[in-house]
Amino acid sequence: MISVQKSGANRVMRWASAQTLLLLVVCMFTQCVCQNSREDAPPTAVPEVKPEKAPTKAEPKIPAAVDVKDLDIDEKLILVEVLNSQFDPCGEPQSFMASLEAATPCERALESAAFVVNLVAKGLSKRQIVRELLKELARTTERAEFALEGTPYYGDPAAKVVVVEYMDFQCPSCRVASQPAKDLVK
């Protein structure tokens, strides 16, 4: 029984020592904080932090044929990177940017540039813009092939542009739509 009481006393002594040490540390930190807030304490020098100015970005050179009035400088930089990295949508051996800088850019280049500007304004990344541009170019250059032998037609069957129209000759709506198609052929 005596050994248990000694052991309990040792624990109480260790606990009291730890508590005293903790109280001493808290008092030291409190004194430091209080010393700095006293009126007669010497002022501590606080270094003045000046905000760093972000470097100004130069306005990128974009051909006048491209409407970029709604884009900020960062978006214009993305646009220039895309235009410089992609091929000419009109099929010439030059960059997209060179195609737009020509005296008279082709219609497909102007349409594709407007498409890219729209994607940049939507906030897409360069990779997403290129992916969508390539999809759009594939879509607009796709040519459908039809076997038209033995089918009724208007106009020259060997024409460069062929409009294929499916109609139901008993449908009143198809009858109404057929006249504008005949006018188109003329």
Average per-residue pLDDT, rounded, comes to 80
| Main sheet: strands, sense, barrel | none
Assign an overall shape.
Answer: elongated
Count every beta strand, where a strand is a DSSP E run of 2 or more residues. 0
Separate helix tally = 6
Structural class: mainly alpha
* Percentage of β-strand residues: under 5%
Percent helix range: 40-55%
Spans of at least 5 consecutive residues with low confidence: none
Written overview of the protein:
It is built from six helices and no strands. With 186 residues, the chain is mostly helical. The longest helix has 36 residues. The termini are far apart.
Helix/strand layout:
Blueprint: H1 2-37, H2 73-85, H3 96-101, H4 107-121, H5 126-141, H6 172-185
Helix pairs in contact: 2-4, 4-5
